[in-house]
# Entry
Amino acid sequence: MPYNNYIVWLFCVVIRWVKRIWRIADMDRTAETRTGASLWKESFYAAFPRTLPILPSLIALAVTYGVLMTASGFGWIWTVLMSAVAFCGTAQFAAIPLMLGGFAPVQGFILSFLINSRHLFYGIPLLDTFKKAGKLRPFMIFALNDEAFAISCSTEPDPRISRVHYHFWVTMLTYTGWVGGTMLGAAAGRLITGNVAGLDFAMTALFIVMFLEQIRKKEKIKFAGIGLCCSIVALLIVGSAAYMIPAMAIMVVCLLGGRGRKWI
# Structure
């Protein structure tokens, strides 16, 4: 099948998938929301401006991933499917040299689990939202990512807007941006013949920007400081190879232990 036909086919698949998600969302509306059809539109209008500032960096990161995958010899369709099905950001970058090194499923599983273990903690603040999500719950849990978590936990929609719908749109926008950016990067990667070394630093740069955005808000500085200190302590204790889970555990202990106190 020619390259252009692959693009058309994949575009049709994405459109059908989005329509299916929309139908599920429509089925999940209560009687109250069915009488107010503008609720979903209002939720989108509330989520879009909150998500828009981070979408360019997210898409740029996804484009970088697409270019790296294509430059490493992977077909564009496998690159896009990796983002659409795996959808694990940092782990996708880390998986590139692992896949090039040969078949190592156990090592791949351990690496992916360690990198994505932070999602075990991401879900805790959103448990109430997930409980009320109904048929949207599987997608919202699957597509939960760093950017969607940061936006959902640091912003509050209008009280008249359902938090479930708001979080759904935040998640959908970030997911679509990542997959769409990967598609663009995979297409661009076919045209780039130069050295692409160093592009994988884009993921680190994104986390630095998110951290800087947090410390710009006075009420968030203490939480950013707790996270930074806990990460340094875990790094000193267990080293850089596997400090992610200990760092997260120390953060949880500090936040739970300081709950209700003046310093939290």
About this structure: DSSP finds 15 helices and no strands in the chain. The CA atoms of residues 38 and 259 lie 38 Å apart. Confidence is low (pLDDT under 50) at residues 24-36. The first helix runs from residue 3 to 27.
